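FW: tagging you since you asked about this chain on Friday. Here's the raw sequence from the shared folder, copied in full. Didn't touch anything.
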Amino acid sequence: MFWKFDLNTTSHVDKLLDKEDVTLHELMDEDDILQECKAQNRKLLDFLCQQRCMEELVTLITHEPPVDMDEKVRFKYPNTACELLTSDVPQINDKLGGDETLLNILYDFLDHEPPLNPLLASFFSKTIGNLIARKTEQVITFLRKKEKFISLVLKHIDTSAMMDLLLRLISCVEPAALRHDVLNWLNEAKIIQRLVELIHSSQDEDRQSNASQTLCDIIRLSRDQSTQLQDMPEPDPLLTALESQECVEQLLKNMFDGEQTENCIVNGTQVLLTLLETRRSGVEGLMDSYTQGFERSYTVNSSILHGIEPRLKDFHQLLLCPPKKSAILTTIGVLEEPLGNARLHGSRLIAALLHTNTPSINQELCRLSTMDLLLDLFFKYTWNNFLHFQVELSIAAILSHSVHEGKAPTAEPESKEEVLNGNAAPESLEPAQPPENLMVTHLFQKCCLVQRILDAWEANDKIQAEGGMRRGNMGHLTRIANAVVHNMEKGPMQTQISDFIKELPEDCRGRWESFVEETLMETNRRNTVDLVSTHHLHSSSEDEDIESAFPNELSLQQAFSEYQIQQMTANFVDQFGFNDEEFADQDDNINAPFDRIAEINFNIDADDDSPNASLFEACCNERIQQFDDNEEEEDIWEEKEITYATQVKSRTRFGASQTSESSSKSDLENGDHDGSVDSEEETEQQ
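HL: got it, structure written out here
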């Protein structure tokens, strides 16, 4: 019956190819054309690689389909054509990459006026990207002959597919020597400087955003490849250009000189934040779960810091007077003056700069009182956790860094190379007496950090006592207070921090000590959730103890219900009725009934002082007879007194009438002076 079916069916594509007048569109209508192409169907590949067919395929992905077509099928053929051209079949790659006529048809897509069709642009970028990876030398040689290539790509940078094309040129070219030639070619075309120019208030938002993202990706890709390829003869020219002081200064000039817009400030700050990255996790994307804990470390070039330092006053002014934003409606009411994305990115940059621990930058921030301003914003915008996190990072950086400001920075910082974290040379530090940390002094004396923590906590307690909501920054305020306590006890600046605490006014110092020993300790206790036990589950955001979500009675009932369900599922079929073994000699299966009892295992969460605890224990002692596993085994054939009452109980337990075995079993149940008898006596005494 099986053999009557013909399993060796011929593909319909082959049948179409047997026709003399078959067209490309007829083949593309077949659902299995891609499968046949990737399977390298010889007849199909010979047809597709004909000059007219290849030209038609390239034209489909670079020209708009007719407007009068049904929208559902309008881009069907361009999509199929792109999949065929990028199917990674050597014969197609060789034909497309080696024919300059086809490459010119493909390249002409860039001559279209903006904006490009985003779908066709993605087809174009995917096809060119595949050729860059597979036919690298031919395609790079072709593109380098096109003088307007870089200009045209930047002209269409508002389309994300063009950004992808640039990144493919940087990351997908092999071998290393050819890649370095490509990087030099892009650098000679001033690709970095031209991308920086696009981050300007005069450009539209899409162009600025894509230019910023391209620069960020170039930084990360270049640093990753420099780390992996330790034997590179020369540094990456694009990364060198990006990290130069001139480039950073030009970017900041575009951001702050002239009209200031939030979009320009945010996009420019994102590039600066990427330049200031010192650590980054491994491969992003689907492999994240396999690369947890893997990080790469990078060095922050001193030229970046030198370029940013003169503009710190502009970021401080940004925090004071951001670009105007209209009021917004939030879940807690109307926010008349929103914080805004520009100020948030400004706070992110300050936190990143503080982590570099550069003496000259720390000094300038102290002069501007930028940390004092950030704390003002922290307590003003009590519901903006993004801002709270950045302020917390800034304070943690100040408290945890060892002292490097022992010697004032030189008048000409350009003449001396800074270390990554801003440390001065070891010989500049006085070994006898550790110098004072300028930022720590500023934080405790000028910013009055301790007093602000205490005042904010008391204000929140008052609000809650009046029935109001707990403030949204209390969680981060708790972490900041813990950071102060931790670094005062065993941090690198513990001596200086302890001295500042001792120098507080007597009433303030008493409030702080009481806060640390009582309020903060109790808050930390409540915020520590036991993930193993569900006893006293509570929210870490609450200020009073919360009882368990379920009463003990419901917990007991729920546990027993789960046990019943367990018995009715996994082993129900095996345990229902009688087993054949129960009718066999009991000396082979004497423990069978007790094995089932041993499987009963569920946890009951109850306090020792719970009224149900004693009741539950009494029920257990009454209904479940105890067995001592350490008890010596007794000879079941030994003659003993037969108790008929227990014989009935035994018959009930085994489910069948027994004779001598029942009498022996009854003695085991009675414990023979050592087992459950003692237990019963102890229960009666209690």
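FW: DSSP finds 36 helices and four strands in the chain.
HL: agreed, and The beta strands are 279-281, 295-297, 328-330, 333-335.
FW: great, closing this out.
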